[in-house]
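User: Reviewer 2 asked us to show a designed sequence for the structure in our supplementary figure. I'm pasting the structure tokens here. Could you produce the per-position amino acids so we can include them in the response letter?
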């Protein structure tokens, strides 16, 4: 394959906070060089009229779920063909909005593993997918759709099965959640022994562990056991934040599912138990995240199935008082680190995948520019 030249108004590196060069040189879908000009006798392959940001990384989502339709667990139980078609449409919304990489957090029937393979093979116009396989939750636990996993031995087998089938990481439920009425958002779902087995088996196999954890004892035991990312983190207390201090482990913010009118509220407004939790979670989340950001905990963002809404996550982080730099990093470099894919994506540099989002404005002058991409490029090709 020959070289491609993508012309932009400037290339933004989220960690260096600067605009440099304007030409991205691509070969076989990877960036080989950033330049100031196109060599003589060479034509520009893709002309753009805006700034280039790294393709966005959604650090937490699910392919088949639509929160605004309600009963998310029921959606996970859908027939395989139904789930696949709905997921295809959902993922297109994400890609169109600039998400070129997505870390998935659990599907039934191997749906996410199949979708990830289809995307790699060029059959599916979707973000690059990092699947977890079926998520781990115990009998009666939050997030249980068809599969429950109980006891250390079954946990180890489940992780081995997922990884054998292509899982990129392990997702387990450390606490209850907001979108169902199965348990308090702080009560641990697994015993300490089971959590230790999850972390040990995952790390032994070389994959990282994402823990769904809002707060309380469940979140603390996850952090102490050595999980790699905390998902949601809407009620993390002092003790848990202390345990996180000084580590480069990320907390993944998922705000729009709770705050956007098309989130849980749209689907589950008629469930008083869920709506009471939504109101409580909004209040506690604001406090917990303000503290967490003050303490410089590493953060990244995910849509949690709010397909196409990653820019709303950025807007929420900005509303909490972060700088544009931190907010942009949370969907680029930091999200790539959290997802353990920063050797391939998250910044525009030689050796990384040519995933770009072209935006109208300078991202530091107007970070909301991420809401309206001019073009999305994945592996060197314009995909949206
Ligand atoms: Zn989730």
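Assistant: Here is a per-position design you can include in the supplement:
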């Amino acid at each position: 394959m020959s070289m491609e030249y993508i012309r932009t108004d400037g290339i933004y590196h989220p960690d260096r906070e600067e605009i440099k060069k304007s030409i991205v040189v691509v070969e076989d879908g990877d960036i080989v060089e950033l330049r100031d000009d196109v060599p003589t006798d060479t034509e520009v392959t893709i002309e753009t009229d805006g700034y280039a940001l790294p393709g966005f990384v959604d650090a937490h989502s699910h392919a088949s779920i639509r929160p605004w339709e309600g009963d998310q667990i029921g959606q996970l139980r859908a027939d395989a063909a139904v789930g696949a078609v709905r997921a295809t449409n959902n993922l297109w919304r994400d890609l169109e909005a600039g998400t070129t990489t997505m870390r998935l957090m659990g599907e039934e029937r191997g749906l996410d593993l199949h979708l990830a393979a289809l995307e790699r093979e060029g059959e599916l116009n979707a973000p690059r997918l990092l699947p977890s396989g079926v998520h781990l939750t115990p009998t009666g636990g939050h997030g249980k759709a068809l599969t429950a996993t109980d006891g250390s031995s079954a946990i180890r087998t489940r992780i081995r099965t997922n990884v054998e089938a292509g899982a990129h990481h392990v997702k387990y439920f450390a606490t209850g959640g907001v979108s169902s009425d199965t348990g308090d958002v702080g009560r641990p779902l697994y015993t300490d022994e089971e959590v230790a087995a999850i972390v040990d088996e995952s790390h032994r196999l070389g994959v990282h562990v994402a823990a769904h954890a809002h707060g309380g004892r469940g979140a603390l035991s996850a952090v102490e056991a050595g999980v790699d990312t905390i998902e949601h983190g809407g009620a993390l207390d002092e003790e848990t934040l202390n345990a996180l201090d000084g580590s480069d482990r990320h907390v993944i913010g998922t705000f729009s599912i709770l705050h956007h009118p098309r989130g849980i509220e749209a689907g589950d407004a008629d469930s008083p138990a869920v709506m009471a939790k939504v109101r409580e979670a909004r209040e506690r989340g604001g406090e917990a995240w303000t503290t967490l950001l003050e303490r410089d905990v590493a953060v990244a963002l995910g849509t949690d199935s709010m397909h196409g809404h990653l820019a709303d996550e950025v807007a929420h982080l900005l509303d909490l008082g972060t700088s544009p730099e931190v907010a942009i990093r949370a969907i680029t470099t930091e999200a790539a680190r959290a997802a353990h894919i920063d050797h391939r994506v998250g910044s525009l540099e030689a050796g990384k995948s040519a995933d770009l989002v072209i935006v109208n404005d300078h991202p530091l002058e107007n970070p909301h520019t991420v809401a309206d991409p001019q073009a999305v490029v994945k592996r060197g090709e314009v995909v949206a």
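For the response letter, you might also mention the following. Residues 60, 62, 105, 304 surround zinc ion (CB under 6 Å). The radius of gyration is 20 Å.
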